[in-house]
Amino acid sequence: MISKILLDNVATYKEVNFNPSKVNYIYGGNGTGKTTISKVIANENIYPYCEIEKDDTEIDICVYNRDFLKKNFSQSNSVKGIFTLGKNSKDAQEFIEMKKDELEKLKEKNNKFENSKEILEEEITKENQDFENKMWEIKKEYESEFREAFEGYMSSKKKFSEKCLGEFNNSSELLRFQDLVERKNLVFKKDVIKYEQISIINFEKLRELEQSEILSTPIIGKENSQFGMLIKKLKNSDWVNKGREYLKNSESQCPFCQQPINRDIIRKIEEFFDDSYKEQFGLINDFKEEYCTLIKTLINNLKELRTQDIEIIDLSILDEKIKIIEEKNKVNLMKINEKIDTPSNIIKLEKITDVIQEINTIITDFQKMIEKNNNLIENIKSEKNKLINQIWRFIVERNKNDIKRYKSSISGYKKGVKNINNKIKNNLEDSKAIDKEIKLKEAEITNTEHTKNEINKILKIFGFVGFKIENAEKEGKYKIIRNDGSPVEETLSEGEYNFITFLYFYQMIKGSTDPTGITRDKVIVIDDPVSSLDSNILFIVSSLVKNIVNDCNNGKNGIKQVLLFTHNVYFYKEVTFRGSNKELKKHEKFWIIKKIDELSKIEKHDENPIQTTYEMLWEEIRDKERINKVSVFNTLRRILEYYFNIIGGLDYEKCIHSFEGEDKLVCKALISWINDGSHFVNDDTMIYLDPESIEKYLKVFKMIFDNMGHISHYYMMMKIDY
């Protein structure tokens, strides 16, 4: 069956959806768009904006319209024969029916399998959506740090989740988050720079100075003299040595008691501070000079290192160490000066080498970072790929349980779908085999003779005795001939031609223009089959159409759906007439096609909306919002003509004189057509009215019924409570 038809950008249709039922009665006036629908159904491929959805793609679509006549039937000697099953083929027909039952059962099984598969696929879709959402949350959590690794997967949940699945067996090194961030900041840095390596500080010389014996050795004079023994006893060699400086400036007077000092004492003092003392004292001064030079160089080197622009390391941590060295150096200089002032004292310097050892430890770490940076630059491409793999390994590990659960669930569902697909495939293969058996059996017993006899029989019954169908010289073809055997050669009247073509179509529904395919399922589309037919022929055509509908309702001749289009009210009433059985089947639907402002619309009705032509005229003016501006004038005067001329009686002069002013002119315009002799409801004269004129005509139209004493009829037909 056809479940949906989208009509768009074709004729007067714009995005119109039509959802036909099993049996469809579709009424519409000429030019509203009935034939357009039949053409779209017959060949949707040439209408790119239209779509047709079918429940069964294998079903045949049989369309009767003008295109069908041009393609399949002409008043010539080459009409395709219609193959049907012969009457004497009971066994074959029973065989075919049995096989068709088997096909139907296989189809029902496959429908159940398709339903089961649909449920599984819905579960797969739900699992996919849940998994994609979970992975997307992870992506949002880490995208600010790992944007470079996620490149190409940032805009699609599906792609990102598929990437996570694809990395499930990633065997890259598993790093901590912080390590990955640090490597990312280095590897993906836009301006990557290669740095000169820095060196550790050699502090062996400083260590020697810190451990120098000169600092731990008291420096005193010659102790084995009498004067020396006294100084040693008093332990005042440093005091005496200072006194010597004052003695040089006091002209041999004691700088303390102001008494003269004899030269012997001066000689003994000088003997105490001999050359050995002077040499050791000189070593202290040399020590200070060397120490100060070494420390100054060390501090300058550290400060120079501190000023280097190496972004990958934090040189600011050296500031504290340099400050400590400077502070310790101040203390040590004080101690050294103290040693110089009091050479007999023992001093111990603050160890700066310990701080330098700490600095070297820091520098060693810096060296590793610089080496790592420089290696990365030399191998930047491979390092980037390596890091990206490590990042995905981290992401997978972060979600390993969710991925395992998802893979397990999806695997189960897909296995179920695969099993169902195998069953469907097997059933389809069985169906093809059975269909082949049916076609072989059809080919054995089908012929075109039965169709020819049936068409000629109906022609004769209804008085069409001047022509008939016979087998053409070419096998599988018909020709239309006169009784004397001569070809008709385009001499059939329009009514005769339309009647015989519909009989041809009617027989084709029961058979096929090919020797096989006779019993295939069909959708029947019939577009206005009674044009130019008189009432007797219209009656037989409507009876044949009702047979088609009954076959559809009862599941006969493979007819699964019927769509009947017509503009003829009498024909419409005939095919929808139900006799004593007035109960509608649920699958029988009624449709009205209207064209308003050059746009066609399709309205659905659960009950038959077409009563009479007169009722339809009133239907056109009930809804003011949807009145056809082109035909409303004709509609109004046709109602007046039909009711007052045939039913109510109308004194034209009296009616006109009951109005005044502009209303009188409008009334005269409406009823003047009646005097002009137009007595047929099907008159097609059109006058276009603007919205303001429509209101005037509708008002006067109502006043005519009121003034002539028939207002109750107006209210009844307009369906207004009165």
Structural description of this entry:
It comes from Geotoga petraea. Residues 89-141 form a coiled coil. This is ATP-binding protein. With 722 residues, the protein is an alpha/beta fold. It has three domains: 2-83 and 448-610, Rossmann fold (3-Layer(aba) Sandwich), CATH 3.40.50; 204-378, no CATH class; 614-718, no CATH class. The chain has helices at residues 34-42, 66-72, 90-146, 157-166, 177-187, 204-210, 213-216, 226-234, 237-249, 263-272, 275-306, 317-341, 353-378, 380-398, 400-445, 449-461, 494-510, 535-554, 569-576, 613-622, 632-648, 652-657, 661-675, 691-707, 711-718, and strands at 2-7, 16-18, 23-28, 51-54, 60-64, 79-80, 84-85, 446-447, 467-471, 477-482, 522-527, 559-566, 588-596, 599-605. It has a six-stranded mixed beta sheet with strand order 5-11-12-3-13-14, with helices on both faces. A three-stranded antiparallel beta sheet has the order 2-1-4, with helices on one face. A three-stranded antiparallel beta sheet has the order 6-10-9. α5 runs antiparallel to α14 (380-398) and α11 packs antiparallel against α12 (317-341). The radius of gyration is 57 Å and the shape is elongated. The chain starts with a strand and ends with a helix. The model is unreliable at 675-688 (pLDDT under 50).
